[in-house]
Each structure stands twice: as structure tokens, then as C-alpha cells.
């Protein structure tokens, strides 16, 4: 494991916090994600999950473990049951130290882009999982904000504008290749921002591989993971990101690498929009903007990770092709704008 992670001090801290034997704490990397690093922490009193930011240039604030701890604590207070229980937040003294966040470990299945046999779903199961996935997202978007204190985790006024400007700035800070379609989409987003904004609690990275499914009833969602970008803002921006990840059968193959929604049985994006529209009070007449924003955001996320790869901060071979994801996301967004179709 990378020497900059001081597991010796961390184990001593955790043993005191959990009242367990430090010599029996084992930490192993859990593979899967493209961004923050996740570890399995096995102790004499049970299993836990631990997260930390990736190595390399901190291009965005999407790796904030302190914030993820605060979000999970607030969600538990609000009665949201699909968020893991926060356990501990460890950070050594010094500005350069990286926080390590420990949370409840929830056993279950996670659908990656290349699913394992035990996680294979048939068409009926994928249909039901589609519905349960959207129901869980809608539940989050409709959470009560004021008395729960969730409202304190974000600044909803002007959220859409800040997001468009912020993700555009992140793109140019992490830019490595000339991809004019991404720059044209950025301009379109600035010109076409909706005037009306909605307010709700949002996840900001909601897709299948951030869901933990029950091993026996694979359509049931046990937990939602990766909360570090959650905030209070416009739920339709969250829906737009989920739609961008919601690849369907006729999409470019490279955009299918993040989600298994392209397999038979899953809803199409049009069906997702109709399902969400029927069950929420939000006006989806301008859904094209939110979908295009989602694609642009996915492209920027891929660009940020690719830059870390190009700088040599990671040698994961998966990251070498992410520049093609940026290109494909930009193209898909531009085609959707021209055709006025999602």
C-alpha cells in the first residue's frame, strides 16, 4: 500500500475508538471505483469500510471525506435509512494530511460495468431494480429539509449557475486535449440555464454502482454509497447526472462502462423521465438542459481522473481510455442539443 498512508497510527487510533485489538486490524483495498479509494477494515469486533481521497493533484472538492462524514451524520438524524452509519474520522496534524473516514460496512452486491455471475439480473429483475432505484432517488429528493437540519448542508439559491460555472472551470483546469465539443457544450449551458430552480437534498453521483443490493433479493436496495458530493440544490440537476449515467442499448459502447442500465429489462431514459415526472412535483419541461449538464459533468469527471493518470499519479490501466469518455460525453451532449432529444 502507498507509504503515504500511515496505517500504523490509524490502527492505533481506531483501536481506541472501537475498543479493539490494533494487532488484529487488517486493511485491504476494495476495487471498483474510479475516484476515491475504498478499503475494507477487518477488526476483532467486525468489518468496517474506510475511504480516503485519491493520490495526486486535488482538481476538485469531490474527495472531501470530512464532508461525507457530515452528510451521513445529518442523513441519519433526518431518518434516511439507506445511508451507512458514520463511525470515525481520522486525520493527523498538518495541512498535508489526508482524512480517513470510517463507516458502517454493508454487505451486498454492487453492479459494476462488468458484473459477476452472482450479480446477474434477468429482465424482470432489472425492470424492478430500475423502479426501486428511482424510488430511492425520489425519496432523497423529497426529504424534509428545515427541521431535519439538512438545509444547512447546502446553499440552494443560485445552485444551477454555480454548478455550470464550477464544472466549466474544472474542465479547463484539467484539460489535456483539444475537444471543441466540450467547450461548445459549456457555452450552451451558460446561455440556456433555467430561470426557475427547485430545492431538495441531492446525492450528485447516483447510479447503480453506488447502490448496495440485497444478495437474496437482488432488486432491493440496502444502501446508497459515495455521499461526498451530496448537498442541497436543484434535484433536477441530480436527475440529469443520473440520466447521463443511464446508458441505453443504442448509446456508444464507451458510455456503457459506468452502468448496466443498457441491459434488457431496464427502463429507457424516456421511461425514467416519465416515472420521475409522475411521482414528483417538479417541472421537467426543460429536462434537456439537465441531461446535457449531466453529460458535461460526466465528461469533466473523466477528464479530471485522466489528468491524474497523465501526470503519473496513478497507473491504473482503466484510466488510460478515459479521455475517450470525455470525447463521447461531449459528442452525446452536442447531438442531444442539436436534435432536442434525450
TrEMBL record:
Keyword Kinase: yes
Signal peptide: none
Domain Protein kinase: start-end pairs: 24-342
Keyword annotations: Kinase, Transferase
Domain of life of the native organism: Bacteria
A Pfam family matched in the record: APH
InterPro entries (UniProt xref): ACAD10-like, ACAD10_11_N, Aminoglycoside_PTrfase, Kinase-like_dom_sf, Prot_kinase_dom, Ser/Thr_kinase_AS
GO molecular function: ATP binding; protein kinase activity
Protein name: Predicted kinase, aminoglycoside phosphotransferase (APT) family
Originating organism: Algoriphagus boritolerans DSM 17298 = JCM 18970
Amino acid at each position: 500500500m502507498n507509504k503515504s498512508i500511515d496505517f500504523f497510527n490509524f490502527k492505533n487510533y481506531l483501536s481506541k475508538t472501537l475498543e479493539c485489538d490494533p494487532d488484529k486490524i487488517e486493511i485491504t483495498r476494495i476495487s471498483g471505483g474510479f475516484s476515491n479509494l475504498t478499503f475494507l477494515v477487518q477488526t476483532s469486533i467486525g468489518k468496517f469500510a474506510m475511504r480516503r481521497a485519491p493520490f495526486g493533484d486535488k482538481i476538485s472538492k469531490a474527495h472531501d471525506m470530512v464532508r461525507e462524514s457530515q452528510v451521513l451524520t445529518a442523513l441519519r438524524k433526518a431518518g434516511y435509512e439507506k445511508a451507512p452509519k458514520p463511525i470515525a474520522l481520522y486525520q493527523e496534524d498538518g495541512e498535508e494530511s489526508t482524512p480517513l473516514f470510517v463507516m458502517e460496512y454493508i454487505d451486498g452486491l454492487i453492479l459494476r460495468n462488468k458484473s459477476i455471475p452472482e450479480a446477474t439480473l434477468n429482465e424482470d429483475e432489472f425492470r424492478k431494480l430500475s423502479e426501486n432505484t428511482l424510488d430511492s432517488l425520489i425519496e432523497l429528493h423529497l426529504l424534509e429539509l428545515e427541521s431535519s437540519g439538512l438545509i444547512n448542508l447546502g446553499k440552494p439559491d443560485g445552485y444551477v449557475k454555480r454548478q455550470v460555472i464550477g464544472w466549466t472551470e474544472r474542465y479547463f483546469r484539467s484539460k489535456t486535449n483539444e475537444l471543441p465539443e466540450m467547450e461548445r457544450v459549456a457555452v450552451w449551458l451558460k446561455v440556456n440555464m433555467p430561470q426557475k430552480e427547485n430545492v431538495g437534498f441531492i446525492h450528485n453521483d447516483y447510479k447503480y454502482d453506488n447502490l448496495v443490493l440485497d444478495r437474496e433479493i437482488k432488486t432491493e436496495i440496502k444502501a446508497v454509497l459515495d455521499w461526498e458530493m451530496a448537498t442541497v440544490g436543484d434535484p433536477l440537476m441530480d436527475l440529469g447526472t443520473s440520466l447521463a449515467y443511464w446508458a441505453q442499448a443504442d448509446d456508444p459502447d464507451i458510455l456503457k462502462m459506468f452502468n448496466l442500465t443498457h441491459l434488457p429489462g431496464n427502463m429507457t431514459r424516456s421511461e425514467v423521465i416519465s416515472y420521475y415526472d409522475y411521482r414528483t412535483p417538479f417541472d421537467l419541461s426543460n429536462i434537456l438542459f439537465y441531461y446535457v449538464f449531466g453529460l458535461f459533468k460526466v465528461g469533466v469527471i473523466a477528464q479530471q481522473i485522466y489528468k491524474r493518470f497523465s501526470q503519473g499519479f496513478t497507473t491504473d490501466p482503466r484510466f488510460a481510455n478515459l479521455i475517450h469518455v470525455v470525447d463521447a460525453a461531449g459528442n452525446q451532449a452536442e447531438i442531444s442539443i442539436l436534435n432536442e432529444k434525450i
